[in-house]
C-alpha cells in the first residue's frame, strides 16, 4: 500500500516540525497539518516563514520549501481526515489536573476527541498513527472508539513515538537514531506497518527502522524519557554532594562519561530539567505502575521527579542565602527563561519555579530571553496560581537585551544555556551592577576564572 496523503492532527512542537520534514523528504505525499487553534494555523501560514509559531533552527527554511507544494496547514479537520489514507495524532496529552489520577495520569480527552472525529468522518479504511506520547495500551482504547463509533470501515492503529528533542528537532528528524513503529502482528497490521516504514524509508536507512508490537512501542517512549531524565537527576544528586565535599561535578561527569558503558551524554548538572515531556511522562509511568500495584517500581521512578524539584528549590535557596538571607526589593536578573537553548518553549522550565520562589521572597525579577516574550513569562507564573496575576506583573519585568536586564541588579542567574550568554562583555555587566555582584550559573556555561578576575562572586552547580 502506497501512502499519497497524510493528515496530522495537532500543529504543535511535535506535529509541525515532523510533518514539515516528512513533506520535504516525500514530495509525492500531500501532507496536511490541522489544528483547532485558528491563530496557530494562521501563524504557520504566515507569508514570512520566520514568523511561524515554533522556533527551531532550520525549520523555517524547510517550511518555506515545502509549504504550498505538498505541505499545508489548515483548520479544516474533517476534510483533511477524509482525504488522507494515514492520520497522525499529535495533540498534546498534559498531566490531568482533575479527577482520578490528578497530577499524575495523562489527560486523554484530546486523544479521545480525535478518535471520535476520525470515526465520524472516515468513509474509507485508514491507518491511524499515535505520535503523541501515551500511556501503554492507549491504542486499544483508540481502536475501540474507532470500531464502535465508525462507519464500518477498517482502522489500523500504529504507535510511532517521536524522539526529537526541541532545539535540535530538525537535525533529529533528518537523522534519527531510530524510528520506532509498533503495530498489530496480523497481516493487516503488517501492511500498515510497512506503509509507514516506506514513508520513512525516503530518508532513513532500513536498519534504523525498528518494528515492534504496539505496547512495546508505547512503553519504549516512556522508558526512554524516564532513563534520560534519570541521568540528569543522578548527576544533579551528585552535584549537591560535590558542593559539600569539594569535588567538581563537571570533572566527575567527564570521568564517568568516558566509561563507554555510561557514555558522555545527558550528564550535565543543571538547575533542573524542564520541558513538556520528562516530568509528564515519568508521572504517567508512576501512575501506570501504581495502578498495577507495583509500588516499588512507582517509588523508584518518582524519585527522579523529587530530585528534580529539590534541585530547582536548592538553586533559589542558594541565591537567597548568598544574598545575606534577604532578597526583598533586590533586583535579580535572569538570563534565559526557555527550558533549554534554541527553543521558545517554556513548558516546565526551571526558570518559572526559581522565579516563583524568589518572588515569594519579594525579589524583583528582570528577565532577558532571546526568544520568549514577557507575556509568556507572566502566563507561566500565573499558571502556578501562587499569587494574583497583578502581583506577578509587579515583580517580573522583561528586557530586550541582557545588559538592560542586568543594570543595577544585585545578582545575575543563568537559567538557560543560550550560546550568546558566553559572548557578552561581562566587565560591562559587572560595572553596571550593585556590589558585591553575584552570578549564579544554573547551567555551568560561564568561565569561573574570567568572572572572578572581573570581580564577580561566582557560583555554579556542583562545585
Ligand atoms: C507533544 C506530544 O504530542 C505529546 O504527546 C508529547 O508528550 C509532548 O509534545 P506538542 O506538540 O509539544 O505535544 O504539544 P503542543 O505544542 O501543545 O501541540 C498540540 C496541538 O494540538 C496544539 O496546537 C493544539 O491546539 C492541538 N489540538 C489539541 C488540536 O488540534 N485538537 C485537539 O483536540 C487538541
Ligand atoms: C526530550 C527527549 O530528549 C526527547 O527524545 C523526547 O522526544 C522529548 O523529551 P526535550 O525535552 O525536547 O526532549 O529536550 P532535552 O534535550 O531532552 O532536554 C530536557 C531538559 O533536560 C532540558 O531542560 C535540558 O536543559 C535538561 N538537561 C538535558 C540537563 O539538565 N542536563 C543534560 O545533560 C541534558
UniProtKB/TrEMBL annotation:
InterPro entries: 6-PGluconate_DH-like_C_sf (IPR008927), NAD(P)-bd_dom_sf (IPR036291), UDP-Glc/GDP-Man (IPR017476), UDP-Glc/GDP-Man_DH_C (IPR014027), UDP-Glc/GDP-Man_DH_C_sf (IPR036220), UDP-Glc/GDP-Man_DH_dimer (IPR014026), UDP-Glc/GDP-Man_DH_N (IPR001732), UDPglc_DH_euk (IPR028356). It catalyses: UDP-alpha-D-glucose + 2 NAD(+) + H2O = UDP-alpha-D-glucuronate + 2 NADH + 3 H(+). It comes from the Bacteria. Pfam families: UDPG_MGDP_dh, UDPG_MGDP_dh_C, UDPG_MGDP_dh_N. Its EC number is 1.1.1.22. Residues 333-448 form the UDP-glucose/GDP-mannose dehydrogenase C-terminal domain. SUPFAM superfamilies: 6-phosphogluconate dehydrogenase C-terminal domain-like (SSF48179), NAD(P)-binding Rossmann-fold domains (SSF51735), UDP-glucose/GDP-mannose dehydrogenase C-terminal domain (SSF52413). Keywords: NAD, Oxidoreductase. Pathway: Nucleotide-sugar biosynthesis; UDP-alpha-D-glucuronate biosynthesis; UDP-alpha-D-glucuronate from UDP-alpha-D-glucose: step 1/1. NCBIfam families: NDP-sugDHase. Belongs to the UDP-glucose/GDP-mannose dehydrogenase family. This is UDP-glucose 6-dehydrogenase.
Amino acid at each position: 500500500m502506497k501512502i499519497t496523503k497524510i493528515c496530522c492532527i495537532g500543529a504543535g512542537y511535535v506535529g509541525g516540525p515532523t510533518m514539515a520534514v516528512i513533506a520535504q523528504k516525500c514530495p509525492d505525499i500531500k501532507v496536511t497539518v490541522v489544528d483547532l487553534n485558528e491563530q496557530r494555523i494562521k501563524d504557520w501560514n504566515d507569508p514570512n516563514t520566520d514568523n511561524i509559531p515554533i522556533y527551531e533552527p532550520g525549520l523555517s527554511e524547510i517550511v518555506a520549501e515545502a509549504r504550498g507544494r505538498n505541505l499545508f496547514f489548515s483548520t479544516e479537520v474533517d476534510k483533511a481526515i477524509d482525504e488522507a489514507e494515514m492520520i497522525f495524532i499529535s495533540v498534546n496529552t498534559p498531566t490531568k489536573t482533575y479527577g482520578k489520577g490528578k497530577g499524575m495520569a495523562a489527560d486523554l480527552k484530546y486523544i479521545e476527541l480525535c478518535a471520535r472525529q476520525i470515526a465520524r468522518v472516515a468513509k474509507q479504511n485508514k491507518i491511524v498513527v499515535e505520535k503523541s506520547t501515551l500511556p501503554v495500551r492507549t491504542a486499544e482504547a483508540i481502536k475501540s472508539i474507532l470500531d464502535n463509533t465508525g462507519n464500518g470501515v477498517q482502522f489500523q492503529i500504529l504507535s510511532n513515538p517521536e524522539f526529537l528533542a526541541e532545539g535540535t528537532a530538525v537535525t533529529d528528524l533528518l537523522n534519527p537514531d531510530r524510528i520506532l513503529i509498533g503495530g498489530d502482528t496480523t497481516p493487516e497490521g503488517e501492511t500498515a506497518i510497512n506503509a509507514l516504514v516506506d514513508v520513512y524509508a525516503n530518508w532513513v536507512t532500513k536498519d534504523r527502522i525498528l518494528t515492534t508490537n504496539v505496547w512495546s512501542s508505547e512503553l519504549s517512549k516512556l522508558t526512554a524519557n524516564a532513563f534520560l531524565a534519570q541521568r540528569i537527576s543522578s548527576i544533579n544528586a551528585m552535584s549537591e554532594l560535590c558542593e559539600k565535599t569539594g569535588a567538581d561535578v563537571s570533572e566527575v561527569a567527564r570521568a564517568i562519561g568516558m566509561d563507554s558503558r555510561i557514555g558522555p551524554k545527558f550528564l550535565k548538572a543543571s538547575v533542573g530539567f524542564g520541558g513538556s515531556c520528562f516530568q509528564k511522562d515519568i508521572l504517567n509511568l508512576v501512575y501506570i505502575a501504581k495502578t498495577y500495584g507495583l509500588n516499588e517500581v512507582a517509588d523508584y521512578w518518582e524519585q527522579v521527579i523529587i530530585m528534580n524539584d529539590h534541585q530547582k528549590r536548592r538553586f533559589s535557596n542558594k541565591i537567597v542565602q548568598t544574598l545575606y538571607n534577604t532578597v526583598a526589593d533586590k533586583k535579580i536578573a535572569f538570563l534565559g527563561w526557555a527550558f533549554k537553548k534554541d527553543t521558545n518553549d517554556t513548558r516546565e522550565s526551571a526558570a518559572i519555579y526559581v522565579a516563583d520562589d524568589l518572588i515569594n521572597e519579594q525579589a524583583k525579577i528582570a528577565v532577558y530571553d532571546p526568544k520568549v516574550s514577557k507575556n509568556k513569562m507572566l502566563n507561566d507564573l500565573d499558571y502556578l496560581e501562587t499569587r494574583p496575576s497583578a502581583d506577578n506583573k509587579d515583580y517580573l519585568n522583561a528586557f530586550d537585551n541582557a545588559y538592560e536586564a542586568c543594570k543595577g541588579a544585585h545578582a545575575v542567574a543563568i537559567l538557560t544555556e543560550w550560546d550568546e550568554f558566553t559572548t557578552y562583555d561581562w566587565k560591562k555587566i559587572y560595572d553596571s551592577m550593585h556590589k558585591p555582584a553575584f552570578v549564579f550559573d544554573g547551567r555551568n556555561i560561564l568561565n569561573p576564572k574570567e568572572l572572578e578576575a572581573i570581580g564577580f562572586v561566582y557560583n555554579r552547580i556542583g562545585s
